[in-house]
Structures are given as structure tokens and as C-alpha cells.
Amino acid sequence: MPGDDGTCAAAEAEVVVRNPQGMHLRPATEFARVAMSTGCAVRVRTADAEADGASVLELAMLGVPQGTTLRISAEGPGAEAAVRRLVMLVTSGFAGTER
Amino acid sequence: MESHTGIAVGPGIAIGRVFVLRRDPGQIPVRRIGASEVDAECGRLSAGMTSAAQAVASLRGAADASPEVSAILASHEMLLLDPALRGSIERRIRVGLVDAETAAVEALDAFAARFDALPDAYMRQRASDVRDVRRRLLDVMRGSEADQLARLSEPVILAARELTPSETAALDRKRTLGFVTAVGGPTSHTAIIARNLGLPAVVGLGDQVAALADGQIVIVDGLKGVVIVDPDAATLARYEEHAARFARWVRDLKRIRDFPAETRDGHQIRLMGNIELPSEVDAVLRAGGDGIGLFRTEFLCQKGKAPPTEDEHYQVYSEALRKLGGRPLTIRTFDFGADKGGPAGEPSAEPNPALGVRSIRLCLEQPQLFMPQLRGILRASAHGNVRCLFPMISSLSELRRAKELLDRARTDLRADGVHVADSVPVGVMVEIPAAAVIVDLLADEVDFLSIGSNDLIQYALAVDRVNAKVAHLYEPAHPAILRLVDRVVRAASDRGVPVSLCGEMAGDRLFTVLLVGMGFRDLSLSPRAIPEIKMAIRSITVEQARRAAAWCADAKHAAEVRKRLLDVVSEQLPSAF
Q1: Do A52 and B84 count as a contact with CB atoms less than 8 A apart?
Q2: Best residue in A40, A46, A50, A55 to probe B by mutation, most B CBs within 10 Å?
Q3: Do A56 and B79 touch (CB under 8 A)?
Q4: How many whole angstroms separate alpha carbon A14 and alpha carbon A3?
Q5: What's the complex ipTM?
Q6: Phi/psi of residue B243, each to 5°?
Q7: Taken in order A91, B382, B426, B377, is the CA torsion positive or negative?
Q8: The dihedral sign for the CA sequence B158, B161, B162, B163
Q9: Do B84 and A57 touch (CB under 8 A)?
Q10: What CA–CA distance (Å, rounded) separates B63 from B55?
Q11: Of B279, B309, B323, which to mutate for an interface test with A (greatest number of A Cβ within 10 Å)?
């Protein structure tokens, strides 16, 4: 999909969920909030399932335990930065979810 | 008098009359709509979801919402804004030609059922969050029903089949003494909120709750998970005293949060937190900690991935420093191996990993793993109080090699014009018995020492504490351990080098008096344990502690040490019991 600058704005990356309880409701909430704020279409895939990154329900329903590898992809302007932010969020154990 | 056992989730004891909450089962009539009404129904749905989300947001903004309650409500807000949920409800309106409420109930019940079917017990309990969101949405869309909770006139113990998280959050504390529910588990949101509000609660009582009648006297023992109905006079008197003592204890722990960890004769002890993730910095500060005494950094490595880049190290450390605002951040360099596995998540292939290429040995062998971390630490040092801690040092030459690498990283960074703090204090973990024996040599070449008591005990006593067959031999009070620790403290104090202890011993109040008496003025522990250890410190004098430590130093058996310390704890320390 072409971005604002006419280039193809799509990106993806893999990240492992580190926090002990996996991607339960609170991390999923934080993830969906950030995904929504990027304005990109964000998808999250595990080995056997897929979720809309902006949907806390679908994310939580993936039932992701600690140690799961997530493949995060984004489409739209700023896709690269969006994926980077989301990877950082997962890597940091969803820092800020305690706020 | 009858006694029932459930799951203890809310701390403390409540005694009072029971009020049974009976709720409208929430049956709603299905209204069939025509194709021409579909858009209007979708519009009503959209307005309902938005205003329900706003209602949750304002509840969350209330001044007295604790961080946990606020996080739960944040989840509910996101559920109400969820595009997949809205899509699913709209499809049901469009395809089933039913009203928005009916479609919402169907969609949310379907999601709740899918949560119920998840293998993870914690996630299963999230079904109650989905049901809570359902109730909230229906309330908004149908006009709020009279809330039984708001009509309570005297303080009561609430009994219900289940309390939803937002109902629990909206409870009027002044009129609620505690609650009991038929369903719910130890990690349900209701349980978390109960702990947060300090409301005594017992959940998972099953059918016993249905047998309760309004006005019955009930004791809720949220510490043991026991509910006593119609207690006799002796039981009542016993529990009243129990409740008063517990309330005092909680008040005292809360009261001292912002007080220094200072002994009665005025000696300050610095209490810092042990953490595994940057997000835990907040928990340490909330508990009244003075900084981070042990930041485990293994989380930065991802399974099956290349080691983290210098930038990733730098970002994570800088973020933690920003939250700490000048308080120390003690970064322990990578401690892979043994039970922690390798940096790429691989299990060790060595026959005896605890004695193999682990921790600093691995780092010294793999500069591509170690150098980015050292450079990240040094770059972050420009933003705050960073200390660098090398784990598993067993000899002077290992320490020197690690320090050389740190110096090289500093020289390289400065050559590139990168700002680095003038001095980054360097310390070693004393966790191999050899390090404790040559601690005088090590102390001459470091800025601080930190005793890792977990590994020190494991190596000194040759006990793998995760091996159930020998775990009972793992014993912090063993005279050999006390002698090793004493040796370290003396060598450190002779040289004016600060020494801390960061194992589980530091968070066990049985040992507080001993550690203070041995000379520790720095301890690092789990954030959860900070208030209780601070309380213990504030209840003793250094003089008393020295006497206890001197006595323990002469003891011949761990059992004698434990008995002596237990005597001190029961004589000197305030307690819930």
C-alpha cells in the first residue's frame, strides 16, 4: 500500500513475549491502545492464529503465554515506526501497563 | 454457628451483617428489526459504546482510583472501543435483523464463552471482564437500573454470586465491610481489587452463598479464606481482637511508606528493589524503595534472536533512570547459564551447567554479547545514577578483564565524542564462595560489593534448591553462610567499600535483625517485601541487632540461629498476629 510519500509503507518484525503472564488482558490493552494510535492497520500473528492489533479481544483471545513469538505487521504511513514502537512495548514487558 | 471455606483474596477480617445482592438476571426481550432500521441500530450501538467507554474513562479518572483499578478499567474502556467487537455486533444486527442490545449480548456472550474455554486459568477469569462490559453497555443503552449498592444505608458484608470488577470498584467503602462470592478465583479482578481496597473478601464459596439471608451476622476471614455464619460469643470476641490487630498493622505499614528505613537509634538502612523488567521500577518507588539494587537484564535477549543492540540497552536503561530521578540504578550485566538458559533461550548442553560457562564467563568469551551492554550502560550513565555490577566473579583476573572491557568501551565512546559520566561505580556480586574468601583482594579494586545470597548458599552448601530431594538442605542460617557473609562485611568495612545483600534473605524479616547487626546498611529486595522490612528496621536498635548477630555467630547449628532470630522477631517486631 503506498504511503504519503508514495513509497510502499508496510513493515513487520518478530518479537518474543517475555513477561511471566504472557499477553493477558492488561498488556493486550496497552498493545491495542498503541496500535490504534499509530493509525496503521496492525496484524499480530502467532504460529497458528492471527489478530487485529487494535482489538484487545482478539489479542487476548490468542492466549499468548510467555515465550511465544509474535509476528507484528503494519500497513500504512509510518508502518516502520509503528512496528518498532510495538516491538519495544512487548520487549519492555509492556512497560507502562502498571500505570 | 457454621463455618465455610473458600479462597482468601482480600486481606483482613470483617464482621457484620450480610446483605445479599440479588440482581436482575438481565434477560432482555429480542426486538426484530427491518432492513431499513439496520443503520439506525448501528448508530445507536455506536453511541452506546462511545458513551459507555466515556463513563468508564471518567470512573478511571476518579481521584481515588488506584493504579490496579485504573488498569482494569482501562481494559474495559479498550473493550468498549474494540473494532472487532463492534464489527461482530454490527454483523449480528445486519444479518440477524435484531436490535443492538440483543446483538451486543449475543456477541459478548460468545466472546465470554471463548474466554471460558481458554487453557490458561488466568485468562479464563477474564470472561468476567467481558460480562462486566456487557452489563455496562446494557445499562447505558437501556438507561441505568436502580443500583442496589447505592441504596445501602448501613455498613454491610455483601454476598453475591459474582461481583463484576466495576461493581467492586464502585463499592462505597464506608458502607461495605467486605464481601463473599460464590464464584471467582485468586487472580480474578475482583480479588485484585479487594486486595487493593483492603477489603476483606472470600470468593469461590460455591452454594454456601445462596444459603445466606439478609441480616445474618457473618465473619469474613480474608486471611484464611474462612467465612463464619452466626458466630458464638467466644468466636466473635476472638475475631474482634484479631481484626483490630490486623487493622493496626495495615495502618502502620501504610504510615511508614514515606518514612526512612531507620533504626530506633537513628541508623539509616537503604532499601532498594530487585527487578526483572523496567516496568517494575514503579512498583519499587510505590513501595517506598530508595532505588534499584539489582536490575536483572536477561529479559533484553529474545529467544532465537541476535543479542540486543547497544541502542536497545541504552533505551531501556535511560527509561528506568528517568523514572528513578537520581536514585541509583544498579545494572547487573548478563547472567545467563544454569537455570536461566543461554542468551538465545537455548537450554545448556553442558553436563553441569551451574559449574559451566555461565554468566561473566560467557560474557568474557562473547564480546558481541557483552560490549553492546557495557556501551549501553556507559551511554545511559549520562542521564543518572548508574552502577555496573558484574555477576559470578570468582577471581581477581576475571574482575580485571571485565573492568578492562568497560574501560575500552569508555575510551571508544569518548573517542566518538559520546558523553559518558565521569565515573560509573563498578561492583561485583559475591556469590561464589571463592569470591567471599578473597573478598579483601576484590574489595581493593571495586567501588561496591553485593552479596548474592541465593547462589552463595547454593554453591557453599552444594545444594540445588530447585531439586526437591535436597531443597531442605538449603539454609541461609547455616553457620558456614553466616561466617562467609561476615567475612565479606568486615573486609568491606575495613576498606570503606559499601556492601549490600540482594538475595531472598534480604526480604525475609526473620533475618533483618541479623543483617543489620552484621553491619549491612544497604539491602536490595523484592518490592513486595519493602514495607515489611522497613517496619522491621524501624522496630529495632543497632545495639540490639549487634547482640543478636554476635549470639548467632557463636551458634553451632542453623536451628539455634533460627530459634534465636524467631525470639527477636516475636519480641520486637509488630505483627499482624
Answers
A1: yes
A2: A55
A3: yes
A4: 22
A5: 0.85
A6: -65, -40
A7: positive
A8: negative
A9: yes
A10: 15
A11: B279
**pLDDT value for A98:** 40
Cα–Cα dist A30/B267, whole Å: 43
In chain B, whose CA is at the least distance from the CA of A24? B123
Closest alpha carbon within chain A to B344? A16
- pLDDT, tens digit, for every residue of B242-284? 888 888 887 888 888 889 999 999 999 999 999 988 878 988 9
Find the closest chain A residue to B87 by CA distance.
Answer: A55
Between B70, B303, B316, which is nearest A67 by CB?
Answer: B303
Cell of B101: 442490545
pTM listed for this prediction = 0.58
**Which residues of B fall within a CB distance of 8 Å from A69?**
303-304
Q: How many CB atoms lie within 10 A of CB B493?
A: 14
Q: Is the sign of the CA dihedral A20, A21, A25, A28 positive or negative?
A: positive
For residue B496, give the amino acid letter: G
Q: Environment class of residue B17 by beta-carbon count within 10 Å: exposed (0-12), middle (13-18) or buried (19+)? A: middle
Could you tell me the three cell numbers for B171? 463499592
CB distance A16 to A9 below 8 Å: no
* Residue closest to A34 by CA, chosen among A89, A79, A77: A89
Measured CA distances, B395 to B168, B401, B436, B442, B558 (Å) = 56, 10, 10, 8, 29
Provide long-range contacts, Cβ within 8 A and 24+ apart, for B455-458. B455/B392, B455/B429, B455/B431, B455/B503, B456/B430, B456/B431, B456/B432, B456/B481, B456/B484, B456/B485, B456/B503, B457/B481, B457/B503, B458/B354
pLDDT in tens, B39-63: 999 999 999 999 899 988 888 877 5
pLDDT of residue B187 exceeding 70, the answer is no
Residues of B marked as catalytic: 189, 502
C-alpha cell at B121: 486459568
Question: How far, CA to CA in Å, does B311 sit from each of A17, A88, B215, B375?
Answer: 20, 12, 63, 9
